[in-house]
Write a structure and sequence with these properties.
- The chain is α+β, with helices and mostly antiparallel strands.
- The protein is 32% helix and 15% strand.
- It is built from two helices and two strands.
- The chain is elongated and about 60 Å long.
Length: 80
Protein backbone atom coordinates (compact mmCIF):
# COMPACT_ATOMS: atom_id res chain seq x y z
CA UNK A 1 0.00 0.00 0.00
CA UNK A 2 1.37 3.36 -1.01
CA UNK A 3 0.79 6.39 1.23
CA UNK A 4 -0.28 9.69 -0.26
CA UNK A 5 2.27 12.47 -0.27
CA UNK A 6 1.57 15.13 2.33
CA UNK A 7 0.51 18.54 1.03
CA UNK A 8 3.11 21.25 1.18
CA UNK A 9 2.17 24.11 3.51
CA UNK A 10 1.04 27.32 1.89
CA UNK A 11 1.12 30.90 3.10
CA UNK A 12 -1.74 31.86 5.38
CA UNK A 13 -4.14 34.40 3.92
CA UNK A 14 -6.94 36.33 5.65
CA UNK A 15 -9.44 34.03 3.92
CA UNK A 16 -7.81 31.05 5.62
CA UNK A 17 -8.45 32.35 9.14
CA UNK A 18 -11.78 31.15 10.55
CA UNK A 19 -11.57 32.49 14.10
CA UNK A 20 -9.26 34.16 16.59
CA UNK A 21 -8.57 32.49 19.94
CA UNK A 22 -6.95 34.33 22.85
CA UNK A 23 -5.75 32.03 25.65
CA UNK A 24 -4.62 33.44 28.98
CA UNK A 25 -3.14 31.16 31.63
CA UNK A 26 -2.24 32.30 35.10
CA UNK A 27 0.25 29.78 36.42
CA UNK A 28 1.92 28.98 39.69
CA UNK A 29 4.37 31.83 39.04
CA UNK A 30 1.59 34.36 39.66
CA UNK A 31 0.78 32.79 43.03
CA UNK A 32 4.44 32.73 44.01
CA UNK A 33 4.86 36.39 43.08
CA UNK A 34 1.86 37.39 45.18
CA UNK A 35 3.08 35.26 48.10
CA UNK A 36 6.43 37.05 47.91
CA UNK A 37 4.66 40.40 48.28
CA UNK A 38 4.69 41.44 44.63
CA UNK A 39 1.38 43.23 44.23
CA UNK A 40 1.08 46.36 42.16
CA UNK A 41 -1.47 49.09 42.71
CA UNK A 42 -1.28 50.84 39.34
CA UNK A 43 -4.10 50.90 36.78
CA UNK A 44 -3.74 47.10 36.33
CA UNK A 45 -3.70 46.07 39.99
CA UNK A 46 -5.89 46.13 43.05
CA UNK A 47 -9.60 45.96 42.25
CA UNK A 48 -11.17 43.30 40.03
CA UNK A 49 -11.90 45.96 37.40
CA UNK A 50 -8.24 47.01 37.35
CA UNK A 51 -6.98 43.41 37.25
CA UNK A 52 -9.13 42.65 34.20
CA UNK A 53 -8.37 45.94 32.43
CA UNK A 54 -5.35 44.66 30.43
CA UNK A 55 -7.26 41.59 29.24
CA UNK A 56 -10.18 43.73 28.08
CA UNK A 57 -7.79 46.12 26.34
CA UNK A 58 -6.27 43.16 24.46
CA UNK A 59 -9.71 41.91 23.40
CA UNK A 60 -10.70 45.40 22.23
CA UNK A 61 -7.47 45.77 20.22
CA UNK A 62 -7.88 42.37 18.53
CA UNK A 63 -11.57 42.98 17.82
CA UNK A 64 -10.69 46.31 16.18
CA UNK A 65 -8.58 44.59 13.50
CA UNK A 66 -10.57 41.43 12.73
CA UNK A 67 -13.76 41.39 10.66
CA UNK A 68 -16.92 41.92 12.74
CA UNK A 69 -18.36 38.56 11.65
CA UNK A 70 -15.23 36.59 12.66
CA UNK A 71 -15.60 34.71 15.93
CA UNK A 72 -13.32 35.88 18.74
CA UNK A 73 -12.90 33.38 21.55
CA UNK A 74 -11.33 34.28 24.86
CA UNK A 75 -10.30 31.55 27.29
CA UNK A 76 -8.93 32.27 30.71
CA UNK A 77 -7.60 29.63 33.06
CA UNK A 78 -7.42 31.12 36.52
CA UNK A 79 -9.11 31.49 39.87
CA UNK A 80 -9.87 34.66 41.76
Amino acid sequence: MRLARPRLPTALTPDGIGAVVIVVVFSTVTGLALAAGFDHTDEHGGSFANRTRLLLEIVDAVRSIVPPDMPLFFRISATD
